Write a sequence for this structure.
């Protein structure tokens, strides 16, 4: 069984500024700073934030890092939803320009799971990704306003 969940969050900051926050390892630093009390510590074990870099509070690898399309995709290789029984779990983050002063953060979870475990799909949620998008968007917008 394959599927996906998606959530779009509008933020009051330009897509280029939001992408700078989401791209590479900056996201982990910001998650620690803004949401560390919620998600715990993010630690990079190896890599520089480009494709192939594992990281996060679960073990994942960066599969896509497209600066032109502003798309980042990671795949869980250990822990998290993988430990619950999912065969594949990918997190895709897209920063879409809405206008000069706002953008949309589309957060998607793509998954594959054996049909016999279909009930586990109800455990998937985009809520943490939405919270992260809201907090990062607010941070980037405030940073832009202060400049």
């Amino acid at each position: 069984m394959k599927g996906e969940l998606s959530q779009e969050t509008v933020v009051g900051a330009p897509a280029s500024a939001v992408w700078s926050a989401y791209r590479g390892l900056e996201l982990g630093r910001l998650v620690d700073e803004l949401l560390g009390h919620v998600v715990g510590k993010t630690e990079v074990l190896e890599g520089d934030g480009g494709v192939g870099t594992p990281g996060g509070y679960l073990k994942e690898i960066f599969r896509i890092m497209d600066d032109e399309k502003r798309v980042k995709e990671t795949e869980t290789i250990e822990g998290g939803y993988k430990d619950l029984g999912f065969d594949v779990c990918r997190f895709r983050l897209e920063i879409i320009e809405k206008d000069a002063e706002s953008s949309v953060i589309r957060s998607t979870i793509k998954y594959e799971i054996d049909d016999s475990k279909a009930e586990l799909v109800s455990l998937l949620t985009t809520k943490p990704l939405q919270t992260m998008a809201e907090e990062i968007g607010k941070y980037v917008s405030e940073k832009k306003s202060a400049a």
About this structure: Residues 31 and 132 are 7 Å apart (CA to CA).
